[in-house]
User: Fold this.
Amino acid sequence: MTSAHLTIDPHFVVGPINRRLFGSFVEHLGRCVYDGIYEPGHPEADKDGFRDDVAALVRELGVTTVRYPGGNFVSDYRWEDGVGPVDQRPRRLDLAWHSTETNEVGLDEFARWLRKVDGELMYAVNLGTRGIEHALDVLEYANHRGGTELSERRIANGSREPHDIRVWCLGNEMDGPWQVGHGTPREYGRLAVKTARAMRQYDPTLELVVCGSSGAGMPLFGKWERIVLEETYDEVDFISCHAYYEPVGGDLESFLASAVDMDRFIDSVVATADHVKAARRSDKTINISFDEWNVWYQSRYAEVDRITDIDDWPVAPRILEDTYSVLDAVVFGNLLISLVRHADRVTAASLAQLVNVIAPIMTEPGGGAWRQTTFFPFATMSRLARGTTLELKLECPTYPTERYGEVPMVDAVATHDPESGDTAVFLVNRSMTDTIEIGIDTSLLGDVSVEWIQTLHDDDIHAANTLADPERVGLKPNDSARVLENEVRVSLPPVSWTALTLR
Ligand code: AHR
Assistant:
């Protein structure tokens, strides 16, 4: 038996956990919107055409903010196509995903749906083909109470109350050559700062996200963040991070350590933002909006899903519909641990995406909706990781990886909720072979009991939930937990994710 040791001290606080850490992302991509959250004619559809069974799962998932409408999609999107009478809305080419956008769902419908699932709208403006004027137009349409052409148009379209969108993304992945309108960091930084200033001339309290690199592997990573922040520092609140992970060449050991990479990524962006802060002698701190993260089998998209035929522009094609295994969910749960560990600087995050497209929730047209394996760590952490993140001392064995060198076999984060008094601990065993017996030193917490403990694990790490077998995988009670004097001992099976609460 391999062992590990964890010490929790409730006095050492990393920072408050912003509820926006449990955000998600809905893009007009594949079947995320159409035949996903929205399917008029489905037996579960409400009067607006949105599926009630899907909305119930979204609520159960515990999603807070939802980023919309893209993604790559936003960079040639005309927001005004998606408002007004549905039968008069144009069909348009979507260059990002080589699809046809019907515009049946737009800002007003989506904002209404979000109210139903208790979500907060985070809206991305198009800085690919557009700029300041259109950003101001959509802002006025969405947020202005009334009495102007655009705000009255919203009211006439059925949304009497303003949508009051607080968080705005200034474009998407503008460093990526795949992005319509991408440019150099200077070009983008200039456009972003002008747009930000204009938007804040309307409302100085808006929270603005400027685009960081679309991944830590991008050629300009670091330089991009520095230059963009040099241009925009005083006018924005967040810089974005995006990261997707998949096993490369069958190397599961490295894949299981993906959160090591996410930790380094966050630390690098924080260091770059703080360098710009120091150089400007600024009092202001820029935080991170990690507004796209997930496991994504991008190689499959490139080889199988990608549509390129000039005559093929389908509506809501089945693309990016990854099926997630137990292995994927363990890596995914570890990515969430990394985000919560950095709660002092990562103050918003969006799981990409929500339904059907690299998603925790899947649907079948006319049929059911089910939870993927990744649903469970997300729903559990959104429910239990409240209050503050605590500093930990973790001692455990390491193992070698090709990509990240020697890495810890175990990863963990703990949170403390002052309201309930509960301490929650989230643990990952990355070992492919060893069960790990972990001792959690609780002497600084006083007398504790284990209120709740569940583990995601399966002897078949490739097991998944599917249309045919939607409940194959789920969390199961972990009955190994023992409360000793000043210590709680738990067994963590190989390739597993565990959550427990101490009261
Ligand atoms: O989430 C899928 C895509 O990944 C998004 O549209 C884009 O921003 C990123 O490259």
